[in-house]
Design brief:
The chain is mostly helical and 246 residues long. It contains 7 helices and 2 strands. Helix 1 runs antiparallel to helix 2 and helix 2 runs antiparallel to helix 3.
Length: 246
């Protein structure tokens, strides 16, 4: 009986360890894929000329793939995954139902659902980043992904402001008509580069731009401090455990 109990205990430990390894690998793979997609969709593909024709189709396809990969990051947490799947599913339905529709209401609903989905994905990523344990490259990838999500979220926010108050932005090259214009202005503001070729002129647009610049700088400072603190706590705990064993 004792041998059977020991065997069952060993098997349970192996199964649990195997499950943790599989979940960690899946989470890491999903997160890496998500981060690569963010960089490709926001920077690489537009620079290569993708999206110049059939802009709306390109933007919808890119967002759909990005959203699905973001939801997959929460696969190991059933409740969080369910929330992300519901919100993401609504965002996808709204986006594709409004495909080809140029009405004010359709674009407003599309941006609103997208912003909500981005907020949920950012929450999923932050929960992964701040899980107990040492700081690994996976957490750093997650922190970078959240930072890039800020740029995407504010780009949609600027579009909403321009829908509600046309003429809220002025551009030296003409009107801002494609998603890459909003992405460009958003990341220039997030990183506080501020070239000046696009300028917010309405009160709401200026407030949103100031908010993004502040969030971009505060996020970097707070995230670095938090990750360093987590690493110190991990090593302190490890040192205490080793001393107790001795």
């Amino acid at each position: 009986m004792q041998k059977h109990a020991v065997r069952r205990t060993r098997e349970a430990v192996r199964n649990k360890a195997r499950g943790i390894i599989v979940d960690s690998w899946q989470s890491q793979a999903n997160l890496s894929f998500f981060l690569v997609l963010e960089v490709l969709i926001a920077f690489v593909l537009p620079a290569l000329g993708f999206g110049k024709h059939d802009t709306r189709l390109y933007a919808d396809l890119g967002f759909s793939i990005l959203l699905l990969s973001g939801i997959a990051i929460a696969w190991g947490r059933p409740k969080l995954f369910a929330v992300a799947a519901v919100v993401g599913g609504i965002a996808l339905i709204v986006r594709w139902l409004s495909f080809g529709i140029r009405s004010f209401r359709a674009e407003l609903y599309d941006d609103g659902a997208t912003l909500l989905a981005i907020a949920v994905i950012a929450l999923v990523l932050l929960m992964q980043i701040f899980r107990s344990g040492r700081v690994t490259h996976v957490r750093i990838q997650g922190a970078i992904a959240v930072y890039l999500l800020f740029g995407v979220a504010w780009a949609h926010g600027y579009h909403v402001v321009n829908l509600l108050h046309p003429g809220s932005f002025t551009e030296t090259g003409g009107e801002m008509t494609v998603p890459s214009d909003w992405i460009y202005f958003s990341f220039v503001t997030l990183t506080t580069v501020g070239y000046g070729d696009i300028t917010p002129v309405s009160t709401l647009a200026r407030a949103l731009a100031i908010g993004e610049a502040l969030v971009g700088q505060l996020y970097l400072a707070i995230m670095v401090a938090r990750l360093v603190a987590m690493e110190l706590v991990f090593w302190q705990q490890k040192a205490m455990d080793n001393s107790q064993r001795e």
